[in-house]
Design brief:
The protein has three helices and six strands, in the order βααβββββα. It has about 130 residues and is an alpha+beta fold. The chain has one domain: Thiol Ester Dehydrase, Chain A (Roll), CATH 3.10.129. Strands 1, 2, 3, 4, 5 and 6 form a six-stranded antiparallel β-sheet that branches. A hairpin with a 2-residue loop joins β3 and β4. The mean pLDDT is about 95.
Length: about 130
């Protein structure tokens, strides 16, 4: 995978279930937070885009849970990006830092609504171009 962005995060105790592993829904939060940080790196913000009538929304996700994360684990979230037509596809992997094992893999497809209609955003296209 040709990763273009990564960030490190910690598992917090309240994110774990009774089995002592991260609840499945929290992996989606980790992935979303990584995408938001990447967007900031490109100089864009969701709030700023929304004010201009541009909303990037998740259209589809494919999730694979591999090795569970546990309380106090540190992990690295990595992101790759591709474009398929009007969709941006974020390929996201979470690796447990202690042993490098893949914990979670996601393919997240985003589309843009420009003034409420499915369309390409010139601003997002320009910001993402160096990474495609």
């Amino acid at each position: 995978m040709n990763y273009i962005f990564e960030t490190e995060m910690d598992v917090r105790d309240y994110e774990c279930d009774i089995q002592g592993i991260v609840n499945n829904a929290n992996y989606l939060h980790y992935a979303e937070h990584t995408r938001h940080l990447f967007l900031q790196k490109t100089g864009l913000s969701f709030a700023g885009l929304h004010e201009k009538g541009v909303d990037a929304v998740v259209a589809r996700m494919n999730l694979q849970y591999k090795v569970p994360l546990r309380c106090d684990d540190v992990f690295v979230s990595r992101l790759a990006l591709s474009r398929e037509g009007i969709r941006y596809v974020f390929h996201q992997d979470l690796f447990r830092k202690s042993d490098g094992k893949l914990s979670f893999r996601a393919s997240v497809e985003l589309v843009c609504l420009v003034n409420g209609k499915l369309a390409r955003s010139e601003e997002i296209d320009a910001a993402f171009q160096p990474y495609l």
